[in-house]
């Protein structure tokens, strides 16, 4: 067996911490070729670990006294709380004691801390947050989904390259199709940013650029990687979540309103299947790509399965040497 | 009865022109306090008009030989095709021979032509395209939904004022709640544009600014008017269309895949109701606001009902003197 990947995991971040986080770590060491460093308040972590039978040598508890809340201002929280699970975990990734770091805690603090502590790969201007956006037949990898709200065209070109490497290696898609999110299919459409980005992407080497994708077509999944600035990306991501929820609510409302209760009862399974197709736990988190180590932002509501899947992502990422491949591609 | 409103209508624009456009005009004069100037190739228009019984004096045919296609470059099409239904119709709105102009033709040509020919209200920096976005309990008026892809903060403040006047007068909502589309609820969140726009909106007089709205919350309809740049607005609009369609497809797929055919048959009515709640024909078009006359972009696939509702919008707009009220509010 290869050398095991070591993942540092923030035991204190997320709505269901530490219970589900610790359970995710236990499940991960049982199923994956990984060792875990669980970072946080050791009494709480040990109390959770005591519930399970697992290979003890593969989970190490690293004590960190402080916790950064989701309501704290990222920069000052990172500077002030040196002994927080988030800062201690990021330092493990920086020093090489861990290959990657996963946290379901504050997005802002994680992104800020990752940039300050782990640092960018040489040549990467802005690391990007990637998200697997569910589509009709699978998913599209969207970046940037919120880390960089104001972008230059050059950043978008780098997002395209990093996204291609990621999707190729993590999901095994050869020559992934890369599209630019734009309001119009033709090259000359869009705003100042997308017009300039199109020019760069068109002549960019090592990516399979297929042109613009209109927001209307995103849910049909015609591209494997889609790039845009973080404001637009976050808008796409969050609107998709809100709209899916609303539509399903409305459909259920209409069904239960009339004399369709019998039909509604029969439809539990199809509705569950629809929900599953849009299930973010399956992927288990958004990778922050372009840093010297992988940092994964797990959803705030992550359960054990989501955490395990985020860890799986770290294992694949490290084994495939994505950092090396990004350096090579830029 | 008041003086009748006169609406110029592009008989040649849209996928279902001239058949459905002419039918929409006939329905409008029967139901509304309006006279129509139908602009386009008179032989074709007269052949359609011959199918109906209606008060002849209330529909006038204005011949225009040329048609601008949706694939033409807007600026050159407007300059070159002086005798197109679109240019002739816009000139009627400019000269005051019509109070408003409705077209289901090329969006780009209509917006460009409206700016060049009809012109802006004094003080309006950028007219905005407004859209009624369906929400869980009604709709939200979104502007700009695609006319201005690169915006300054000042434009967004004007969109908020114009949107408020529109919603108050057309839909009778007093003190409409205005929100800024932003990726984060707090004032300090967002990109350079939204941060600056927030500062302006916060102290802006005559609007009921309620702060940021996150894209996730848009479908729940917590604001009456939402403002953003045209790139983000068009993304919201088109992604909503695409995602609604995809989700309904997926749900139907799941229902018909299993042994749920019986349930599916029972669900035709609820599904039709859901579709109706998201029906754009009900509103009948996107008003281009901030011009000296109202110009309405009807959807390319508009049927007679959509056209009639677009005309109704023109009647309300003119009777309420929205141009005067916008001047007063800026």
Automatic annotation (TrEMBL), chains A, B:
The primary location reported for this protein is cytoplasm
- EC number(s) in its UniProt entry? 2.3.1.274
User: What UniProt keywords apply to this chain's record, in alphabetical order?
Assistant: Acyltransferase, Cytoplasm, Lipid biosynthesis, Lipid metabolism, Phospholipid biosynthesis, Phospholipid metabolism, Transferase
- Any idea where this protein resides? Cytoplasm
Main EC class of this protein?
Answer: transferase
Q: Name one Pfam family in it.
A: FA_synthesis
- List, in alphabetical order, the GO biological process terms annotated in this UniProt record: fatty acid biosynthetic process; phospholipid biosynthetic process
Q: Which reaction does it catalyse?
A: a fatty acyl-[ACP] + phosphate = an acyl phosphate + holo-[ACP]
Q: What are the recorded GO MF terms, alphabetically?
A: phosphate:acyl-[acyl carrier protein] acyltransferase activity
| Pathway involvement of the protein, from the record | Lipid metabolism; phospholipid metabolism
Q: Which domain of life is it from?
A: Bacteria
**Cellular component GO terms held in the UniProt record:** cytoplasm
Q: Would the keyword Oxidoreductase be found if you checked this record's keyword annotation? A: no
How this chain assembles, per its entry, is: Homodimer. Probably interacts with PlsY.
PANTHER family cross-referenced by the UniProt entry? FATTY ACID/PHOSPHOLIPID SYNTHESIS PROTEIN PLSX, PHOSPHATE ACYLTRANSFERASE
Family recorded in the similarity comment:
Belongs to the PlsX family.
Q: What does this protein do?
A: Catalyzes the reversible formation of acyl-phosphate (acyl-PO(4)) from acyl-[acyl-carrier-protein] (acyl-ACP). This enzyme utilizes acyl-ACP as fatty acyl donor, but not acyl-CoA.
Query: What protein name applies here?
Result: Phosphate acyltransferase
